[in-house]
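Protocol step 4 of 6: structure prediction from sequence.
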Amino acid sequence: MVLFQPLFANGQEKDLASGENKNMRNWLVLLFSFLLVSGAGAEPIKVLLHLDQADQAVTLISVAEEIIKGNPDVDVQVVVHGAAVTRLRRDDYLNADFQRIVDRGIHIGVCNVSMARKGVLHDSLLSGVELITEGGIARILALQKQGYSYIKI
């Protein structure tokens, strides 16, 4: 049984809801369900999603939406750096999807170092996306120290 399959084949992005990617999505949903159930009655669940590959942006959006679906008290932080910073521009084809998860309360921070390396200007970012001045990796470490469960997308 294949658990994880690429989102891209022949240069075309696949839909996560397709049969070819249901296994990966199902495993991620199972993982997040376990995190949510294991924290029942304890302090609020804090989840850190790490995205550094632009071709995994659709997966991140899907996973983020599954986490908050029915669990409005979950604190979800997303750290974006590397090649993935280009996905947070207002002119990117995923802009409406990212804006939707920001509007639903998911906090997205983008690494200023990666933005400079990729030539992404701050004023080209979606509204609600925070510029991480200390850098993406430093933010990831800080959030882990604060008790966030780390998930690499």
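Step 5 (inspection) to follow. The chain has a mean pLDDT of 84.
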